[in-house]
Amino acid sequence: MRIETAEFVRASGNAAELIEDGAPQVAFAGRSNVGKSSLLNRLLGRKLAHTSSTPGRTQTVNWFRIDRRYWFVDLPGYGFARRSREAREKWAEVVDTYLRRESGPRLVVLLVDSAVGATRLDQEAARYLDALGVERMVAATKIDRVKRGARAGRLAEIRRDLGFADGTEIVPVSTTSGEGVRELWKHIADFLAGPVPSQKGKERQQRNAQDDGTGIPG
C-alpha cells in the first residue's frame, strides 16, 4: 500500500487528549519490547515512531495521521514492571478509555513476540479485547528469530494460547527481513476499504462462559 503522507500529530497522556474525529484508526497493542515502534516504522517506510531498547519507553497514546484520512495509533506497551503503580494505573485508565469509546471504525493489531510465544499478559489482552468487542487481528513479530521448520508450530501454539478458533489467521512479520509486512498491509487495507469480516462471535462461544475479560494487563 502506497503511503503519500505520514506525520506524528499528538502524544495523549490522558483521556482528555484522545482524538475523536470519526476517521478510521488502526491501533497497535502489545507487550513492552514486542517491537511496536519498529513495525510502525517499517509499515510506513519512514522513521516516525521512536524506537528504544529500553522496555516501556512508550507511555502515551501516540497518533500518526496517514494520508490525511486515517490514523495509526501506537498504544503504550503493557507489562513493564518497573513503572510505578500510579503510572500503571494511569496507563490503564487512558488505554481503557481509548478502547471503550466510539469514534469511527477501529482495528486493533495485537502484537505477540513469536520468539517468546503468547505470555500470560498477551492472553489477558486478547480476552480483554474480545470482552470489549473490539475488532482485532494478531501479528507475530520477530518471526526471523524462529527457525523456518518451527514456525507453523509456533503460530499454532500462539493461536491456541490466545484462545482463538482453529483457522484464525495470525500474520508472522519481521521488521528485520521485511517478511509478512505486505501481508499485514493487505489486512489493514481490507479494513480501511470496508467492514472487516469478524470471527469474534464464533471464538467467544468457545471461550469459558465465566470469562468476563475484565482488567487490563499491566
Write the layout of secondary structure elements.
Blueprint: E1 6-12, E2 25-30, H1 36-44, E3 61-66, E4 70-74, H2 85-100, E5 106-113, H3 120-132, E6 136-141, H4 148-161, E7 170-172, H5 181-193, H6 200-205
Distance between the termini: 34 Å
Would you count the extended β strands for me? Answer: 7
Helix/strand structural class: alpha/beta
Q: What is the fourth-level CATH superfamily? A: P-loop containing nucleotide triphosphate hydrolases
Q: Quick one: biggest sheet?
A: 7 strands, mixed
Q: What is the fold named in CATH at topology level?
A: Rossmann fold
Count structural domains: 1
Number of helices: 6
The Rg value, from CA coordinates, equals 16 Å
* Outline type: globular
- Estimated share of beta-strand residues: 15-25%
Percent helix, as a range, is: 25-40%
Classified by CATH, the class is Alpha Beta
Strand order of the largest sheet: 1-3-4-2-5-6-7
Would you identify the regions where 5 or more consecutive residues have pLDDT less than 50? 52-56, 195-214
What is the CATH architecture term?
3-Layer(aba) Sandwich
| Element string (H = helix, E = strand) | EEHEEHEHEHEHH
- Look at the structure and give the mean pLDDT: 82
Structure, explained:
The protein has a single domain, classed as Rossmann fold. It has helices spanning 36-44, 85-100, 120-132, 148-161, 181-193, 200-205; strands spanning 6-12, 25-30, 61-66, 70-74, 106-113, 136-141, 170-172. 35% of the residues are buried. 33% of the residues lie in helices and 19% in strands. Strand 5, helix 3 (120-132) and strand 6 form a beta-alpha-beta unit. With 218 residues, the chain is α/β, with parallel strands linked by helices. It has a 7-stranded mixed beta sheet with strand order 1-3-4-2-5-6-7, sandwiched between helices. It is built from 6 helices and 7 strands. The longest helix has 16 residues, at 85-100.
